[in-house]
User: What shape does this take?
Amino acid sequence: MCKAQAPEENSLLWEITGPGQSRPSYLFGTIHLICPADFSLSDSLKAVVARTQQVALEVDMDDPAMMASMMKTMNMADGNGLKTLASEGEYVKLNRFFRDSVGVSLAMFEKVKPFILMGPLFNAVLSCQPQSYEMELIGLANKQKTEVIGLETMDEQMALFDSIPYRDQIKMILTMIDSLPKARQEFRDLVSIYKSQKVNDLYQMTMKSDYGMEGNEEILLFDRNKKWIPRIQKIMAEKPTLFAVGAAHLGGERGVISLLRKDGYRVRAVK
Assistant: This one.
């Protein structure tokens, strides 16, 4: 029974119907950063935004207070700093890379949770000015004056990175810097799978990546999927909604699609 729940169809867009819902809601798998040449918003997705009454992202990126909330929660706990957590050699390497390849000084990131460095680092990996599905969806929602909400708060999201040892986060960044050509190839492969809409393959690749979960799948993926399900159900019961979350959350037997199906919802691929 469990096995059959994981999505076998290839689609990034899914229709959800089920108990207590007069009209369907939808689920869309995003990729957080992608080069403009690979970016595309399907007509089906645009039609779904027009048909639903709100867009729910992982966090409410449309909230004017989001940046303030992020600033408040971005620093490491207990006064930790990069200089104290990284060895002297590691710090020199990080500093040189961020100065030469990213164009920012590491000093401004001294106290922040190391995973935040992944943002500027990804720009170096991508070698383009990336586009964001989330920002495009916010634009569409704003145009038709529909609400944008979040499945979790910024505080909840930032707290995830206190659960993963800061030292591990630094190691992950160093691994990426040490193998940029490999990281670039992996990202190209990821984008290719994303464009083919194979959500299960995407999930499998995310699980195997050297630059992502690194043994933190429970914290970053599975715990959040489980926590989102009652929230998704409550939101859907109130009004038809488009949920847009990272595509890695969709696939697998512990993914959002499988969990909704287990709860009696019909989740079917939209072409």
Remarks:
- The first helix runs from residue 2 to 5.
- The mean pLDDT is 92.
